[in-house]
Design a protein that fits this description.
The structure holds two protein chains of two kinds. By secondary structure, chain A is an alpha/beta fold. Chain A has ten helices and twelve strands. In chain A, helix 7 links the parallel strand 9 (166-170) and strand 10 (197-201). The model of chain A has no long low-confidence stretch (mean pLDDT 92). Chain B is an alpha/beta fold. Chain B has helices at 3-9, 35-44, 49-63, 103-111, 141-145, 154-160, 162-168, 179-187, 428-436, 441-452, 454-457, 462-476; strands at residues 26-28, 87-89, 125-131, 134-138, 150-153, 190-196, 205-211, 221-227, 232-240, 247-250, 253-258, 263-270, 282-293, 299-306, 311-314, 317-320, 326-335, 340-349, 355-364, 369-378, 386-395, 401-410, 416-425. The two termini of chain B are 15 Å apart. Residues 1-14 and 118-124 of chain B have low confidence and may be disordered. The chains are: A alpha/beta, B alpha/beta. Chain A binds chain B through residues 48-52, 71-73, 75-77, 81-82, 84, 87-93, 97-99, 101-103, 105-106, 109, 141, 158, 162, and chain B through 3, 427-430, 432-441, 443, 447-448, 450-455. The structure holds adenosine-5'-diphosphate (ADP) and magnesium ion. The site of adenosine-5'-diphosphate has 13 residues of chain A, from strand 2 and helix 1.
């Protein structure tokens, strides 16, 4: 479904991603871990099409299409969803209104009729139950004054509404207490299918107890330096990242 | 050059969609302005002598006045002698109802999306349409008449209700108030008049639609709204003009009188031609709007959505004379390309326990300049006056300007006046967040701007709010990405 080949990206002239290779197939869950500042959010942003990042090399094929050629909105319409590490506030715009605009534009792109108010509302009700989110929150200004946990839950609610093919969750677990973590993970698990894939970016093994990955990758200094199965996450939890850093830094060539 | 600048260089705003004009036979005054022209207009309108004298007095005063220069706007002054002060579509006789209106005129308004056909209007909005210098039609007159509500063109009111006009004309905005108000008093040609009798709640929105069609013609309409004790009315005003290379002058006066316990809501969606994207042409919109809360517990609320005009100079104000009276001003002013707006309000607290609320949302894009200018004045005997002002500016790009000029003048120590101001930019983060959910950039801007202006848009009657939202989006189209 997603094939990233030798991806290099920089911001304001500073290289951040330095040759990422990753294959994701439908039905899979990939976890990306790594120390702070290693480039995890950058990778997520580049896939979503954030313009500040300049792709200097490499290609990304998503469902047979050159992902990097598409505008951010077309990537979303093709089914790429990014749950933001720091969701953005939009004063005066309710989640409901925001999602109605989004969903109808996605549907239009896919040649579907816009949903009328009644159908939209019943879809909302269904998805609200999935992530146990309160209707009151959805009529407030998007993310404005939301607690950290509410923001994350709202991201997953949006994901549920838009039914993406590829979901990238950027540290969705941070700021969540145990109950919220369980609810959000349940939501993500229920949305998984044979046709969709998930990339989970996280610091902590904790999340991976709930969303069980098929593969775990360690990102360090803009490269994937180690890949494995979920046991790798446990090992990282136990030993930290230092041993990987040492391994990489000692063999690094300039 | 930053990315923002590049984007703005490519800025190419959507063409003004009401920029067409129509040729039809008109009755016109000769070009220029002098006493004879004023007599000509007055004769044409078969006016009583007192009104002619009123006009001539205003003209004399005006001649001694200077065009104001304190506003934060810059433009080449117009040659007022090169304008025409009266232009009216030729109609064989004044239509009694909509069926007698020239079909060609009806077609003009249909094209503007305004149906004059009463059956077609589901929402029940009574409308008075003013084309260039004269009112061409007023709908729902009979329905309103049964409640004793008078809603008609100004000219008709002068003939049919001279006692009301004589009593209230110039009572809120004196003819000598300012340069443009004096000019208007001298040459005004038509407008709307509305009277709501004691205790009557007007059952429908009253609305005036202004359209400038003729070239080289100034539009000087006057609106007078009188809400007698314990009455209520909601009034809407809309306007458009053809796209022309030269600037055109619009200098209107609106006066509102509210008796005890009366409430008047006045909403404007101003969409005069703003000039093209290089700043050529466009309307000079120099308007004086003022209301007086004359009776105790009365309320006047101004809501304006200003999207058009090349230069706007406009300060809808409230004189809070009655005790416990309330004045409100809700404004969204959008400027793009080379537009300039200097707009705001004056709240003058005279009575005890008077309250005012100001919510101003400026949005600037392109190379435009957007200024808020507001005055809160608390007079000596205005015990316990309260004011809250919120002035926000939203900037798109870094070539536009937003300015805030609050003046506070307090002569009673019990007054409580609060002023909050913010300036923000439409964030690329916000746009990207929308994009990531599948929303195109243009729609993202519209969504964000409408969210920002929501508190004001919520004040508009439903049908107008939808139109205003679209207009905001249209004005800003092409200003990002
Ligand atoms: N806008 C930016 N300008 C300059 N450097 C940035 C910017 N965004 C991220 N970086 C840098 O890129 C590196 C990777 O950041 P990020 O992808 O956020 O890491 P992670 O998500 O793995 O913690 C960090 O060194 C960070 O400082
Ligand atoms: Mg990160």
């Amino acid at each position: 479904m997603l094939s990233i080949k030798n991806l290099h990206a920089s911001i304001e002239g500073t290289p951040i991603l330095r040759g990422i290779n990753l294959e994701v197939k439908a039905g899979e869950v990939h976890a990306i871990m790594g120390p702070n500042g290693s480039g995890k959010s950058t990778l997520a942003s580049v896939l979503a099409g954030r313009e500040e990042y300049e792709v200097t090399e490499g290609e990304v094929i998503f469902q047979g299409k050159e992902l990097l050629e598409l505008s951010p909105e077309d990537r979303a319409r093709e089914g790429v969803f990014l749950a933001f590490q720091y969701p953005i506030e939009i004063p005066g715009v309710s989640t409901t209104n925001f999602l109605r605009t989004a969903l109808n534009q996605v549907r239009e792109y896919r040649g579907l009729e816009p949903l009328d108010a009644v159908k939209f509302l019943s879809l909302m009700k269904e998805k609200m139950a999935l992530v146990e989110i309160d209707q009151k929150l959805l009529s407030r200004s998007l993310n404005e004054g939301f607690s950290g946990g509410e923001k994350k839950r709202n991201e997953i609610f949006q994901m549920a509404m838009l039914e993406p093919v590829l979901s990238i969750l950027d540290e969705t677990d941070s700021g969540l207490d145990i109950d919220a973590l369980r609810i959000v993970s349940n939501g993500v698990n229920k949305l998984k299918s044979e046709k969709t894939a998930t990339i989970v970016v996280t610091h902590y093994q904790r999340l991976l107890d709930y969303i069980v990955p098929d593969f775990v990758h360690v990102l360090y200094k803009g490269r994937i330096v180690k890949s494995g199965t979920k046991e790798l996450a446990l090992e990282l939890e136990e030993k930290g990242y230092d041993w990987i850093k040492e391994e990489v830094d000692s063999t690094a060539t300039v | 050059m930053s990315k923002d600048n590049q984007i703005l260089e490519d800025l190419n705003s959507k063409e003004y969609e009401h920029g067409w004009s129509v040729n039809f036979e008109t009755d016109e005054a000769p070009l220029g302005l002098n006493e004879d022209i004023i007599r000509w207009i007055s004769t044409k309108k078969e006016e009583p002598l007192w009104l002619l004298e009123w006009r001539l007095k205003a003209f004399k005063t005006w001649q001694a006045m200077k065009e104001p220069e304190w506003a934060n706007v810059h433009y080449a002054k117009m040659d007022l002698q090169a304008l025409r002060y009266y232009s009216a579509p030729k109609q064989s006789k004044k239509p009694k109802n909509i069926n007698e209106v020239d079909p060609e005129l009806i077609a003009i308004y249909e094209r503007l999306g305004i149906s004059l056909n009463e059956q077609k209007r589901l929402q029940g909005i009574a409308i008075d349409v003013v084309l260039d210098s004269v009112s061409v039609a007023t709908t729902f007159k009979e329905t309103l008449g049964m409640l004793g509500i008078i809603f008609c063109s100004f000219s008709e009111a002068v003939k049919e209700h001279p006692e009301l006009i004589q009593k209230y004309l110039g009572s809120v905005v004196p003819m000598t108030d300012n340069y443009y108000a004096a000019l208007n008093a001298a040459v005004f040609s038509d407008g709307s008049f509305c009277y709501i009798p004691k205790g009557v709640r007007c059952p429908m929105e009253l609305s005036t639609y202004f359209r400038i069609n003729a070239a080289n013609t100034g539009q000087f309409e006057r609106t007078l709204i009188v809400a007698d004790d314990s009455s209520y009315v909601s009034y809407l005003e809309g306007c458009t003009a053809p796209q022309r290379d030269e600037n055109q002058l619009h200098a209107a006066v609106v006066e509102i009188y509210a008796g005890a316990h009366a409430e008047v809501k006045y909403s404007t969606v101003q969409n005069w031609f703003p000039g093209d994207k290089d700043g050529k042409g466009g309307i000079f919109n120099f308007v004086t709007k003022r209301g007086i809360c004359a009776g105790d517990h009365s309320k006047i609320s101004w809501t304006q959505v200003e999207t058009g005009s090349a230069v706007t100079w406009k300060y809808p104000s409230c004189i809070l004379k009655g005790d416990y009276s309330i004045g409100e001003f809700y404004s969204v002013a959008v400027t793009n390309n080379y537009q300039q707006a200097d707009t705001g309000t004056k709240m003058i607290h005279i009575g005890k326990n008077t309250k005012s609320r100001i919510v101003s949302k400026g949005i600037s894009a392109g190379k435009s300049q957007n200024s808020y200018r507001g005055q809160v004045q608390v007079m000596k005997r205005a015990h316990n006056a309260r004011n809250f002002s919120q002035c926000d500016s939203l900037l798109m790009g870094d070539q536009c300007g937003a300015h805030t000029f609050p003046y506070i003048d307090i002569a009673n120590p019990s007054a409580k006046v609060e002023h909050e101001a913010t300036t923000s930019k439409i964030g690329e983060d916000q746009i990207f967040y929308c994009n990531q959910r599948g929303i195109a950039t243009e729609d993202a801007v519209a969504l964000i701007v409408n969210g920002y202006a929501k508190e004001v848009l919520n004040q508009l009657p439903m049908e107008f709010a939808v139109e205003a939202q679209k207009l905001l989006a249209l004005t800003l189209e092409g200003s990002v990405g």
